[in-house]
């Protein structure tokens, strides 16, 4: 039966600095590397063979996947990279310290930007330090200036339908090494999570989430491989 493993990247340098990262291409910390390695060791201990691996185009997700696959004894597995698995674009919040932003705009407003389903942060101005329009990674891409979780899902879902779902329907085991919000979007699709509930779903760094699916790609079981760091999951219907 189809099996999906969702792996949120390990701690990044900007996670450590408590900054809004989004599409900024920052690397893992030593702790993030350790989290990725532990995730791969858990996959190996569970005896899981991965048929296909995917990641975003951001280095923290790419390296997490590489480190995890190596630790799982499957280091020769190539990762397919696509920008549609990127983290949510945080718009004008990109690069800002989260605590300082809350002091400036108020905790309630920042909570809306961070946790509402369909209210995006202010747009990122063109020509600034974090303008991605000239980045060759995104040549030919209609780059957003900001995203909500809903608009993140809007770009993830077509990729899921066209690329990911067919391999799962073929009975493959698929690993996706990506980000909190792009993985949250996939969880919303699979578990049919209501709009007001998905924002409360937390995904721990470097802890593989194993989801078993039926032929229609409906979850039949789901669990984190590291039970000690597990978060509450949506109910399997």
Model description:
With 237 residues, the protein is of the alpha/beta class. The protein has a single domain (3-229), classed as Rossmann fold. 37% of the residues lie in helices and 13% in strands. The protein has eight helices and six strands, in the order E-H-H-E-H-E-H-H-H-E-H-H-E-E. The chain has helices at residues 13-16, 30-45, 59-71, 98-105, 107-115, 149-169, 180-191, 195-198; strands spanning 3-8, 52-55, 79-81, 173-178, 209-213, 219-224. A six-stranded mixed β-sheet has the order 3-2-4-1-5-6. Strand 5 (209-213) and strand 6 (219-224) form a beta hairpin. The two termini are 17 Å apart.
Spell out the blueprint of helices and strands.
Blueprint: E1 3-8, H1 13-16, H2 30-45, E2 52-55, H3 59-71, E3 79-81, H4 98-105, H5 107-115, H6 149-169, E4 173-178, H7 180-191, H8 195-198, E5 209-213, E6 219-224
Parallel strand pairs: 1-4, 2-3, 2-4
Antiparallel strand pairs: 1-5, 5-6
Catalytic activity: (2R)-2-phosphoglycerate = (2R)-3-phosphoglycerate
Organism: Caulobacter ginsengisoli
Pathway: Carbohydrate degradation; glycolysis; pyruvate from D-glyceraldehyde 3-phosphate: step 3/5
